[in-house]
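hi!! sorry for the late reply, been swamped w classes. u asked for the two structures so here they r. pasted raw, havent cleaned anything up. first the sequence of the first protein and right below it the tokens
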Amino acid sequence: MNSRYIKGCGLALMSAVLWGVSGVCGQFLFAQRGVNTEWLVTTRMLAAAILMLGFVAVRAPGELFVLWKDRTDALRMLVFGVFGMLAVQYTYFAAINASNAATATILQYTGPALIVGWFAFKERRLPRLAEWLGVAMAVAGTVFLVTHGRFGSLSISQMALVWGLGSAVALAFYSIQPLSLMHRYAPPVVIGWGMLIGGVLLSLVRPPWAIAGTWDAATIGAYAFVIVFGTLVPFYAYLTAVKIIGPQTGSLLACAEPLSAAIISVLWLGTRFGPFDWLGTALILGTVVMLTLGKPAETSPKIE
């Protein structure tokens, strides 16, 4: 194992952990500081878009606007910005606000099972045995997670479940729809424009200047972490890692995200996580590992 491969694995793992911590920071901002969900998502996407597109403008200015010269690609970009980037960002943080970072992140990771179902439908075939098993594990893991083993009732609110499963659907769309764009343009260009489109649209609902909540040093620190270390740094690190180790290995290492979210949420915010929650987590992460190992590299899920 050479040093370059180790570096790639380290970058992917770091990205996953940072995304997990970012989700917990979001939970802190919502639950303990009264920060508005729409405002956080709006400013997160706009700030990340400005920084990412600014980076492209400095490093490769000729690539910044080339995407918009093709009408078909421009339309795909608009669809991705609204139904991919905006949808996956908003549903994820709405699920955190309705439950907690650990539950929201783990529910989102049922998305790969939906991706498998889509490609089976597209290829007009039945899912393979490993895919059936993966889907069954995802369903069982979700049931354990949302019921705590008491199958007659939910341990989280209905809205938390709706937003959590909605984020899984959004993740599946986000992972599949922009594949053609990712093949033709640099990922920072696609992601940057997607974030800008989503941020501008959501700002019509909650403009960046409509600040709410209690702001102190802890609030500013958590918010800064979400913007810098929960968005810009892990995106760049993950994309760099994928170039070195490939999307398949990168997706496997990204499984550290829900684990880190669960552990930090328990340790920092005192989130209750019982045996059935951990069992559900293990089943869902097992699903991601199984399905990622069994898929071609180009369909490996991309993390938001």
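now the second protein. again sequence first, tokens right under
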Amino acid sequence: MRKRTALKLIAACAFAASLAPALAQEVIKIANIVELSGGGATAGTNFKNGIELAVKEINAQGGILGRKIQTTTTDTQSNPGIAKGLTQKAIDDGVFAIFGPVFSGSIMVSMAESRKAEVPNFTGGEAASITEQGNPYVFRTSFTQATAMPKVARYISDTARLKTLAVIYVNNDFGKGGNDMITKALANSPTKIVASISTDAGQVDFSAAVLKAKQSNADGVFVYTNEEESARALRELRKQGWTKPIIGETTLTGQKVIELAGEAANGAVGHVGLTVDAPIPAVRAFKAKFEKEYKYVSDHNGMKGYSGIYVLKAAIEKTGKLDRKAVAQTLKNFTVTTQQSPGVLMDVTFDGKGDVDRDSFLVEVKNGKQEVIATLPPLGKK
């Protein structure tokens, strides 16, 4: 009797094991490895919410190649070491793709794990060095600094016509990369950088940094810090009576920065790769859906997560099979249009390194809101 029972148990286990691969293919596993606490909480939460909104829509439409998407979300706590461990865990769980981290310092560490496992890894990080490592499995849903800074530099030198500039930047991979790239982009322009002022991630007091900018007598200031620090810098600039141009990138004029800085944000000008206020129907529709779902207005990070899922969907469908390595190859030199996939929000092209090129915008904060003041064409567009 015992022998018969044991044989039945062995047979049952064998049958279950035979089903495991088939069951694994019933869903497409995606891991959200994002900053939900710490200095990156604003960016990570928006990125995650954008992803989940896109997944909800795609699953309601039948999924990808007939399979639903299943997501799991974990918090890096804005810590690169934790991000690396969570990436390894996601790989052990058999995910098809990874989204995040958003912070450049974290993805720089964690993407080594997804590369070894040949898992496509999407990030909102902007440090130029992310895609300069020759990693064939990392893809950016935001501009690289090498793409964004030439556009900002043209505005500073040709439109704002500033002769001198002070730069306030955060001393991490993101900030140092931005400082290097804006310096390079302005090197042969009429604008001279007269002060380069380093600040710490999570810094609360910006009085000394702003004082240094004032003492430089620069015609304007370029602020390149994380969202929460950007709001503090704006408040301190206004507190110390700064009336000259304040210019930055995406992290200076995001919705969360505007909310935290209040009236101090008015007048700030930023180059943004993505904004929910872009005069594009698909973007406006996304803004309304996101606000209805989450009861607040998305920033650019929400758009990065949302559009990234639709890019992955388009790449899988073009590949025609759930093959991680083949999908990563498809994404190289890959163009997706809104006519093909409205969820990408704007026509986008990935180059051979995993960087994106598309339209971008100059915005100015007016009366507590972003207002698009110019649309800038892709760098690759002649």
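hope this helps!! also noticed smth abt the second:
The first helix runs from residue 2 to 24.
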